[in-house]
C-alpha cells in the first residue's frame, strides 16, 4: 500500500495515498465541484488530462492550478470554489 500523506481540502485535513492527483483526492472525499463558472455553474474535473481546465483550484495560495495535473504531497492546502 502506498504511503499516506495529509492534505487540507477546504479546511478539512484528509489522508490520501501519496502520488494521488488532487482531482482524485477531491472526488474520493466527496468534493466534485472544483470551481464555479462566471455564471455560477459548478465545474469539476472533466477530461483528467489538463485540456479542459475545468478542475482549476487554489493550491497553497496559488490560484488556477489544474487539480488533475497536480500530485498530492504532505501538507498541501487545497481550496475549491465550494
Automatic annotation (TrEMBL):
Where is coiled-coil annotated? Answer: none
Q: Which UniProt keywords apply?
A: Oxidoreductase
The keyword Oxidoreductase is annotated on this UniProt entry = yes
InterPro entries recorded: 2Fe-2S-bd_N (IPR042204), 2Fe-2S_ferredoxin-like_sf (IPR036010)
> Per its record, what are the GO molecular function terms?
iron-sulfur cluster binding; oxidoreductase activity
In Swiss-Prot or TrEMBL terms, this protein is called NAD-dependent formate dehydrogenase subunit alpha
- Source species, please? Caballeronia choica
